[in-house]
Amino acid sequence: MTPATLYFDVVSPYAYIMDVLLRRASLPLEITLKPVLFAGLLKAHDNKGPAEIPRKRQYTYELCTWLAQRHDIPFRMPPVHPFNPIRYLRLIIALGSSRVVASAVFDSLYREGADPDDPRIWRALTVALGVAEPDARIEAAAVKLALRHNTEEAVAAGVFGVPTVLAGDRLFWGVDSLPMLEAWLAGDPALESSAMQAARQVRPGISRL
């Protein structure tokens, strides 16, 4: 099994789709889940999120809905988006960053389309996960520090968006990178072709900054 890290934020509907597809694919990967704050990545790279650009926001929701339908994934956008994901990210960390917990959060938000800001949804989720005193758990200093550390680690690794799989020294960003990840795992020579080598050497010709 090849060790890999999945950096994700539950604010991203793409991350939900990636979670489902990775579970279905049964790739030879030993994946460590690392919840990160997408807003922290955006700040580090001086970038805007897709939900901060009106037409891109609409396009993102439509594309995610279409992708889910194409892959036969139950999907419904929550009624409010973007939302503050911090308590959900901290909950995942507080419960060991397991796939079971992450998937439960994703399912609540994007399979059921629950309102992430509704306290009843939060309570139902934490009760289902068997969490005692969830609000206290997510306020623990160690949990807060872990989320910050995960985000800083992702930035240091060059991660610029979510979801991203880091395998070896390669980043695979987004749902559409899964075929490339599969090719890399299979040793596809196309990933080391002369054209690929040339692509890595392209220089910037102009900068707007």
CATH homologous superfamily identity: Glutaredoxin
What is the arithmetic mean of pLDDT? Answer: 97
Task: Please count the helical segments.
Answer: 10
Q: What's the architecture in CATH terms?
A: 3-Layer(aba) Sandwich
For the record, the CATH class is: Alpha Beta
- Principal-axis shape: globular
The overall strand count is 4
How many independent structural domains? 1
Beta fraction of the residues? 5-15%
Biggest sheet features: 4 strands, mixed
Helix-strand pattern:
EHEHHHHHHHEEHH
- Poorly predicted runs are none
Helix share, percent: 40-55%
For the CA atoms, what is the radius of gyration? 18 Å
Please list the strands of the largest sheet in the order they lie side by side. Answer: 2-1-3-4
N-to-C span: 42 Å
Active site: 12 (nucleophile)
Keywords: Isomerase
Pfam families: DSBA (PF01323)
Enzyme class: isomerase
Q: If you had to describe this structure to a student in words, what would you say it looks like?
A:
With 209 residues, the chain is of the alpha+beta class. It is built from 10 helices and 4 strands; from the N terminus they run E-H-E-H-H-H-H-H-H-H-E-E-H-H. It has helices spanning 13-25, 38-44, 54-70, 86-94, 99-111, 119-128, 134-138, 141-156, 178-185, 194-200; strands spanning 2-8, 29-35, 164-167, 170-173. Strands 2-1-3-4 form a 4-stranded mixed sheet. Strand 1 (2-8), helix 1 and strand 2 form a beta-alpha-beta unit. The chain is globular, with a radius of gyration of 18 Å. The model has no long low-confidence stretch (mean pLDDT 97).
Q: What topology does this entry show?
A:
Blueprint: E1 2-8, H1 13-25, E2 29-35, H2 38-44, H3 54-70, H4 86-94, H5 99-111, H6 119-128, H7 134-138, H8 141-156, E3 164-167, E4 170-173, H9 178-185, H10 194-200
Domain DSBA-like thioredoxin: 6-183
Catalytic activity: 2-hydroxychromene-2-carboxylate = (3E)-4-(2-hydroxyphenyl)-2-oxobut-3-enoate
Keywords: Isomerase
